[in-house]
Amino acid sequence: MRLGRVFLGFFVLWLLLDRSAAMLESMRGEWGVAIAAMVVIAAVLVEFLISKRKPIAALKALGLRKPNVGALMWTLVLCAALLCVFPAYSMMTGEEIRVRPDAAVLALGMFAQGGIAEETVFRGFLFRHVREGRPFWRAALIASVPFIAVHALLFLTMAFPVALMALLVSLSISFPLAWLYERSGNSIWPPAILHAVVQGAIKVVETENFAALAAAWMVVATLAPWVLFFLKAEQPPHPVSWPLPPKGGEG
Question: Which H helix or E strand runs over 99?
């Protein structure tokens, strides 16, 4: 029954995220900040309905909390290494890679939409609840099913090879993102940064043979995040258990 409520809550939050992005045509994060705000507010409400946590406690439970410093630093180093793919590709192929003029605005929107909003839904809400009473790999596998399922909808809007590669990327990174979430002390900030870079960096660059660059990026983005499994916790994660919090407290 508890998982039933969790998956129902997840479906409501994902539907809000997906449909608002579609209606606003925010494919590159053009409306990302507004979408993230709507999703976080909705997640707080769903969290209250499930666990009776008040807004501040719900925000912390959803992962909007200070991250483990070590995990954050690992994330920043990994993201910097990932971004080196672009100059390396340019040197190897001789192709010029240009950054879009609106890259800064889009990057902010994609961090809000693909980072904060998606990680609030998939890690801060779904994975956290599924993780209760289950070992990491079992919980990560269960939580990866809806994560992969919603990304499978890309086959409806993309060419088959592109959608398939995007699905493989989603399948692969769902496990490192869950691991990073735990190593961060149940904070979504490091996973949100990594998720936004993996999803968004390729959307702010242009080149003559974009398909080849996109394929190279997807391969690296599929494999590189697994290095995070070398990351150990500096302190125990902050579990959020199912029993209701004490009246007036976080639990």
Answer: strand 98-99
